[in-house]
Design goal:
This protein has an eight-stranded parallel β-sheet. It has a four-stranded parallel β-sheet with strand order 2-1-3-4. Helix 5 links the parallel strand 5 and strand 6. By secondary structure, the protein is α/β, with parallel strands linked by helices. It is elongated and about 80 Å long. It has 16 helices and 15 strands. The protein has three domains: 97 residues, Rossmann fold (3-Layer(aba) Sandwich), CATH 3.40.50.11600; 227 residues, Dihydropteroate synthase-like (TIM Barrel, Alpha-Beta Barrel); 125 residues, no CATH class.
Amino acid sequence: MSEHILFLTGKLAEKQLHNILEKMQPEFSYTVHQLGLKVAALMTADMIARRLHDTYNADRILVPGRCRGDLETLSAQLGLPVERGPEELKDLPAFFGKQAHHYDLSDYRVKIFAEITDAPNISIEDALSRAEYYRQNGADVIDIGCLPSTDFPHLEELIAALKQAGFTVSLDSLDTQDLLRGGKAGADYLLSLHESSLWVADEVASTPILIPEHHEDLASLDRAITLMQANNRPFIADPILDPIHFGFTASIVRYHSVRTRHPEIEMMLGVGNITELTHADTLGMNALLLGVCSELDINHILATEVSGHACRAIKEADRARRIMLAAKTQNTLPKHIDPSLLALHETAPFPYSLTEIKELAAQIRDPSFRIQTSPEGLHIFNRDGLHSAIDPFALFPKLHVETDGGHAFYLGVELARAEIAWQLGKRFTQDQALSWGCASITSEPTVDLHTFKPAGTTLQKK
């Protein structure tokens, strides 16, 4: 017997909910119950408890996504599960599709080495603060970057402090003396050793990251790999990723070649040469580079956040590695798995057509303004009419809120959000901040990142 679902809604959305469910032709049976209020988004758990007197033999109840209150307590009172649906009715088909295809993003294979590139020039306290920020954003290893011809007197002390704070540590230098100092101080990894400096690995217990003797000399990398295998020592090989127009495509081919010749070894890819040295949004670059890692079974990346435009690169790489593993495990495309890597655009930015917005506007009988977007532009409406434009300034003279500063401010904020969303092809939902995926600042970081937190309050005109 199929599941029976009770959908609770309001007067304005009832007809549309019926239409959407009919078009879905779901496998489950359903009842739509209008709870006696005009706007479904104003529904609360307490209101449902007071007004719902018949559950229509449902197996579960689906309430609007913006329904407020304690649904667990309500479920206990009614004796069946009560769940929130999507915030927009048009997302119901996708909602049920996502329920049937839930992807677990708790696991990953790729370790992120997050580099503190200027470690010799900052204090131990500042380095620890930055390391904690990196860890919170997904880093597994904190990489201490050495600088050429720069003294690093507190190298050993910094490694000890990081280890004491529970970090796994790598040291990044081509100077053998730096590498020896770091290895003896307890660094877990050393970046980077080549055929001529491989003797350092015999002096310390650190796991070496191997690179070619000369930039494109894969034969020397092969010899270093063979030697480490003969000595039964763990290692990671890095054929070196080059920037675009300076060997990028050839370097991708090198990675493929090394993987083909050595199918079982651990490998590393330094993503910073692309994310830092390309002025484009890093979300897409991280998605693509972690896709390469997934295909070639590269389980270590070196990431940096030096340039301003790369300020979320580690957080993005963390999400990308999880999405790619989920896609690979399920043998599917990395699509419709998680929206975290969609910042500028969205798959369904305009849930309602202009015709549907006009139909809704015609039903409004109160003075509160509703704002929606469609491919044609921005739309604001209440009982006094519907106004449309692509520029919010063209709408202001029609709203008659000149003497109500608070309401004018509220509408200005919401229309500005709507304009940005319309221009970029993003989803706009009134009274909610725009979603920027994992590019958003969602909490107070441990370092100064010029945080801005919206007040989160809404002003409604009565």
